[in-house]
Design goal:
Strand order of the largest sheet: 4-3-5-6
Helix content: 40-55%
Radius of gyration: 18 Å
Number of strands: 6
Oligomer: single chain
Distance between the termini: 28 Å
Order of helices and strands: HHHHHEEHHHEEEHEH
């Protein structure tokens, strides 16, 4: 099985363990992410995986679902309002059960594809490893909202690597998505993994660099934390600019949370 799919599976299982321990009242608790409830967070992940299922079915199935979704968005519905409209009545344990079943099915479908095959998505089509990494990234990022709300520390593992890699690969996307000219040379990124291993990209760049904890870098590129709430060392104008607009997920340009507005720590 592809490494990225293994990491996705582990991410889903960690979130599953957390969700299965929730009390019924916990699902109504409001997170610091757009005032979504924990139920909203899981519903969003369910809706995204539903799109993932469509993407692994056919381009036509994905396009049909995407067009229907965008009709509601263009009519003024927010992403979570659109998900609530599409999947009414899903709450708590019932939502958890259909979410985990669908997540397993999506992973099974991905494992049956060749690595080079490209799947449609909201942004450019992605190879199977990139698609799996993107699904892992979304599960990991949104899980933080639940951990934060429950005031729980989260243990980091080296399965962060596909997320950090996705963060590096989407350097130009962060600019293009905002209609800005993308610099030719991406900054050097040198991260310390939870295991102590060193992960490095673009080592040739001696002018711009981001260095520090792999989990904190992943938090910034997924907009889980503001750069100011991390200990990352950022050198060079381009590196500093990128860390203010970094966005490794598809969709409209999004800004990071305000400094201090999201829980500090892992």
């Amino acid at each position: 099985m592809l490494y990225e799919i293994e990491c996705l599976n582990e991410e889903v299982e960690e979130l599953s363990s957390l969700l299965s321990s929730l009390a019924s009242t916990d699902w109504e608790r409001v997170t610091a992410f757009k005032s979504w409830t924990i139920n909203d967070v899981v519903l969003h992940l369910y809706a995204s995986d539903h799109m993932g299922i469509a993407s692994t079915t056919s381009e036509e199935a994905f396009r049909t679902l995407r067009e229907d979704m965008m009709r509601h968005r263009n009519a003024g519905a927010t992403p979570i309002e659109e998900s609530r409209h599409r999947f009414p009545g899903l709450f708590g344990r019932g939502l958890y059960e259909v979410w985990i079943e669908q997540a397993h099915e999506m992973s099974r479908r991905l494992s049956m594809r060749t690595p080079e095959e490209k799947l449609p998505w909201a942004g450019p089509p992605m190879t199977v490893p990139s698609f799996a990494a993107a699904r892992q990234m979304e599960n990991w990022a949104h899980s933080h909202e639940i951990y934060d709300t429950l005031n729980l520390q989260r243990a980091a593992t080296d399965r962060l690597k596909p997320i950090a890699t996705l963060g590096v690969k989407t350097f130009k996307w962060a600019y293009v998505n905002r209609g800005l000219p993308a610099p030719d040379a991406p900054p050097r990124v040198r991260l310390t993994a939870p295991s102590g291993a060193i992960w490095e990209w673009n080592a040739y760049n001696t002018t711009d660099m981001i260095e520090g904890d792999a989990s904190e870098f992943s938090q910034v590129v997924t907009q889980v934390r503001n750069l100011a709430d991390t200990s990352l060392r950022v050198e060079g104008e381009i590196a500093r600019q990128w860390m203010q607009i970094a966005q490794c997920f598809a969709g409209a340009p999004s800004d990071p949370p305000a400094p201090g507005s999201r829980r500090r720590g892992v």
